[in-house]
Specification:
By secondary structure, this protein is α+β, with helices and mostly antiparallel strands. The chain is built from ten helices and 14 strands.
């Protein structure tokens, strides 16, 4: 798939972790900083040292400015982010796919519809994959994944199956995945295309590979939802406030508008859609 390379102009101020914005005095319903560990996720969350920017940080900053609530965003690897949430040390996860496992620990608020696909940087000589089984049968291909990403039980079963043949490589973030795909064009990954595209756009070593992105929707990977998780372990008052704030953000379409401003149409069409609205 050929995609147009768009160099992202500076469209938003960097959200600095050490100087998170206070919008006046804290309101009673948000009397402490909301703990939001984050990991690099395309333009959804961009990390530069200890600074954070991107679609979801911009959404949280807007809420902070309007509603007197502080969000303390701390960069961590994705696997650690998941562990912090599971152990009650994180109040939120942003830019997260809905999963049965995460539902045990939090309440999900969808922001957009999304779909993971199979992605590679190969020269398109092989026939397209249509499902997981065709990938399993193609013995030459390894699957490169970000540790902590979860696209459902079928995805986890695929990892287990390929792991038995030593055909799975775990990486810490999408940029590391992109670098490995560049070095080994026969390898593939599974993630939402916007995540890998954004990671490669941010890495000067990978930008020259953007026009080689091959995006292949698979029958096993259907459209789902992506958004934020709120921890069930939170204080009831804070949880109620954040749930209402996130639902208002979802209804406004803020996150989908952010995706549309950062990504080319060719990448969005197979990976991100607005939420379905109920018919009047």
């Amino acid at each position: 798939m050929q995609v147009q390379v768009i160099h992202p102009a500076i469209r938003s101020a960097v959200v600095t972790v050490s100087l998170m914005v206070w919008a006046g005095a804290s309101a009673a319903h948000c009397s402490r900083a909301v703990q939001v560990p984050v990991s690099a996720t395309g333009y959804s969350v961009v990390i530069e040292g200890q600074s954070v920017r991107g679609i979801y940080p911009e959404m949280l900053k807007s809420i902070s400015d309007k509603e007197n609530c502080r969000f303390a965003m701390t960069p961590v690897p994705r696997a650690r982010l998941e562990k912090l949430f599971e152990t009650g040390k994180a109040d939120m996860i942003v830019a997260a796919q809905r999963s049965t496992h995460r539902d045990e620990f939090g309440v999900f608020v969808p922001m957009v519809r999304s779909r993971a696909t199979l992605i590679s940087l190969d020269d398109a000589q092989r026939a397209p994959f249509k499902n997981f089984q065709e990938l399993v049968d193609h013995k030459e291909a390894r699957l490169v994944v970000v540790r902590g990403y979860d696209y459902g039980s079928g995805y986890q079963d695929l990892i287990d199956t390929l792991s038995h043949d030593n055909r799975v490589v775990f990486e810490v973030d999408p940029q590391a995945v992109g670098r490995l795909l560049k070095s080994n064009p026969g390898d593939v990954t599974i993630m939402v295309p916007t995540i890998l595209y954004g990671a490669m756009q941010e890495d000067p070593r990978l930008r020259d590979q953007l026009d080689k992105l091959r995006i292949e929707p698979l029958d096993n990977l259907v459209w789902g939802e992506s958004g934020v998780y709120l921890a069930k372990a939170m204080e009831p008052g804070l949880f109620k406030y954040l749930l209402a704030a996130m639902q208002r953000a979802a209804q406004s379409g803020t996150v989908h508008k952010g995706f549309a401003s950062y990504y080319p149409v060719q990448v969005l069409k197979d990976s991100i859609k607005p939420l379905d609205r109920p018919q009047p």
